[in-house]
Structures are given as structure tokens and as C-alpha cells.
Amino acid sequence: MRVLVVAAHPDDEVLGCGGTIAFLAHRGHEVYVLILGEGITSRDEERDPDRRATEIATLRKAAKEASQILGVKELFFEDFPDNRFDTVPLLELIKAVERVKKRINPDMVFTHFEGDLNIDHCLTARAVMTATRPLPGESVHRVYAFEVPSSTEWNFATKFQPNVYFEITSFLERKIQALKYYESELRIFPHPRSVDGVKYLAHLRGAETGVEAAEAFRLIRALEKKY
């Protein structure tokens, strides 16, 4: 089985489903990751990616190192403006997803929850839903939405209600190891995007479904194929 993870920013793929990536790769599935945004320039009043080139390169290096830890087969990057996806035509995001999807023909896709607080997450989710619409011959038969600490739970008007869990008890430490490569993105507890915050969420999701640690997802669309 081929799996595609579509994330808005470097570190979202680990925060949202790093343990599940490791689990699926361990089971012999091919896991690919597409990161749409450069992840840095929103910190400036005006976007100047050239001025931030070194930091962008460092963040991409962290993404590559994290992907190796998790067992990702191939990592793809786009260069959309950080936290400014709403300044880009949605069609451009859709086409970026379609290019990678066409290349690998995934069976399953993981992406953001459309109700996240972060605008880039919302638009990534919309782009994925359009790029994987169930036309005849579409390879994708399952689409899952993941949660990202410090975005999903902070949109208090829209609640993330998971209905699918992947146990990651044996892969939680690998997820944390991968996350530590994103040193510039980590915060100190009790921030939810801290090492302890991520661990606590994994144990909470595990307790919800009777295991030690899990990642939670919202199943958006599924087709049970007839064989």
C-alpha cells in the first residue's frame, strides 16, 4: 500500500501522524510526505524568503532527518508562503498536491483537519479534498484528517472528533526522536507543541481507545473496494 501525508509546514507531518508513519513503514507500506509551505517567513512583517534562506534550508534538513527516522520513502517540498496560503490561488495548492499524487498513486492520504485555527492547515485540507475527489479511476480510497497540537484544539468553535485511532505504543519514542530534529519549532511545556505535550496527547488518545499510546484521526472519506 502507498500512503501520502500532505502537511502545510515542516513538523506538521510529525506532530500529526509521525507515529503512524513509523507504524505503516514498519509494516512494509510505502509512505511519502509532501510539505507545502516553507514554514519560516510568517515571522516577518513582509515576506522575504531570500533573507530567510538559511533558516528555510535548516528546516528542510530537519524534515529530511525526521523522515529518515520515521521510515519515509520520499519527501517532497513546495515553497508556498508560511501562514499566507490565503494569498495563493487555491488552484495552485490543488495542483501541487495533484502532481505528487499522480506520481505515486497513493491508496491512502493523511492531511490536516479543515477546522484548524491555522489558515494554512484549512486550505491544505481543502486542496487535498479537491485533489482526491472520487472520480472514476481515483487511486485514493481513504482520506484521514489528523490533529496538530497548538492549532486543532485552539479553534474552540470547531471540535476535532476522532473516529479512527492508530496505536503507536511501540513508535512513540521514534516520533519524539523525529520531532526533536525540529528544535526551532518546539516549545517548553505546558505549551502543547512541546515534547511532554505531544507525549501527553498520545497517552490521552491511547486511553480513549484502550492502549498505551495512539494517534487520533477523523475519517473523511473511505471506499471499501470489491475484490
Q: What attributes does this structure have?
A:
about 230 residues, alpha/beta, Rossmann fold, seven-stranded mixed sheet
How would you concisely characterize the structure shown here?
The chain is α/β, with parallel strands linked by helices and 227 residues long. Helix content is 37%, strand content 19%.
The amount of helix comes to: 25-40%
CATH topology: Rossmann fold
Overall morphology? globular
Contiguous uncertain segments of 5+ residues: none
Strand order of the largest sheet: 3-2-1-4-5-7-6
Q: Could you give the count of β-strands?
A: 7
Any guess at the CATH architecture? Answer: 3-Layer(aba) Sandwich
How many domains, as an integer?
A: 1
Cα distance spanning the termini: 15 Å
**Biggest sheet descriptor:** 7 strands, mixed
Mean pLDDT: 96
Q: Give the count of helical stretches.
A: 6
Approximate strand percentage: 15-25%
Helices and strands, in order, run as: EHEHEHEHEEHHE
Rounded Rg: 16 Å
CATH superfamily: LmbE-like
Structure description:
This protein has a seven-stranded mixed sheet with strand order 3-2-1-4-5-7-6, with helices on both faces. The protein has a single domain, classed as LmbE-like (Rossmann fold), CATH 3.40.50. It has helices at residues 12-26, 53-70, 90-104, 119-131, 172-179, 195-209, and strands spanning 2-7, 30-37, 74-80, 108-112, 142-146, 164-167, 214-222. It is α/β, with parallel strands linked by helices and 227 residues long. α1 (12-26) packs across α5, α2 (53-70) packs antiparallel against α5 (172-179) and α3 crosses α4. β2 (30-37), α2 (53-70) and β3 (74-80) form a beta-alpha-beta unit. The longest helix has 18 residues, at 53-70. The protein has six helices and seven strands, in the order βαβαβαβαββααβ. The model has no long low-confidence stretch (mean pLDDT 96).
